[in-house]
Design brief:
The protein is an alpha/beta fold. The chain is built from six helices and eight strands, in the order βαβαββαβββααβα. The strands form two sheets. Strands 1, 2, 3, 4, 7 and 8 form a six-stranded mixed β-sheet that branches. It starts with a strand and ends with a helix. It binds flavin mononucleotide.
């Protein structure tokens, strides 16, 4: 049987930051579940903002006229069985890196729907304030719920928790275990 493909996207500039650490746990769980995992670090990639030119809706051979690193990510998004988006909370929602990436999903849509329909998603969020309402994590959670519902994708699990300095999230053993479990679940359900 062909291995399931899990694509992990890191939306924090901190490679060893809290959301990246949790994402690594998800990756370990997915690998333990027999999946193939590929991780992308958005901060090092050239991803421009959507210009709303709507050329993507004319369904030419290319997904998007912007010739940047999304051209590498579109085929990965298409072929992935499961997609994990890991982001810190910046100003009460996802990081700018994450939002730029998400806006460009627009190119995978048409009158018939979105090519991401049916994909399984895992969401990872970290934030400083202990309260997910005060931190703004709820805004990001709602964004994923609404966006993925809109495109017809399924959220398999959301792992989110509070930490400030890079690495602090490791102390939250329960959350680290939940991230590992999410990876296993994604490998099993994808
Ligand atoms: C520019 C910036 C904005 C932030 N905004 C928030 C915020 O709105 N709410 C919050 O709880 N934490 C906020 N934080 C704290 C980070 O979310 C927190 O440190 C998180 O653990 C970072 O995750 P990372 O290590 O994966 O980058 C902010 C941090 C930075 C650098």
């Amino acid at each position: 049987m062909e291995k399931k493909k899990v694509m992990i996207v890191l939306g924090s500039p901190r490679k060893k930051g809290n959301s990246s650490i949790l994402a690594k746990q998800v990756a370990a769980g997915a690998k333990a579940g027999g999946a193939l995992v590929e991780t992308f670090y958005l901060h090092d990639m050239n991803i421009r903002p959507c210009t709303a030119c709507d050329a993507c809706r004319k369904k030419t051979k290319i997904d998007c006229v912007l010739d940047d690193d999304m051209q590498k990510l579109y085929p990965k998004l298409r072929s992935a069985d499961a997609i994990v988006v890991a982001s810190p909370i910046y100003w009460f929602t996802v990081s700018a890196q994450t939002k730029l990436f998400m806006d460009r999903w627009y190119a995978l849509g048409s009158d018939e729907g979105y090519e991401l329909a049916g994909k399984k998603f895992g969401i990872v969020l970290t934030y400083a304030d202990a309260d997910p309402f005060i931190s703004g994590a709820v805004n990001a959670l709602r964004t994923f719920q609404d966006a993925l519902n809109f495109i017809g994708a399924k959220i398999v699990g959301m792992v989110y928790g509070s930490a400030w300095k890079a690495g602090e999230i490791r102390r939250n053993k329960e959350l680290m275990a939940a991230a590992l479990e999410l990876g296993k679940k994604l490998a099993a359900e994808a």
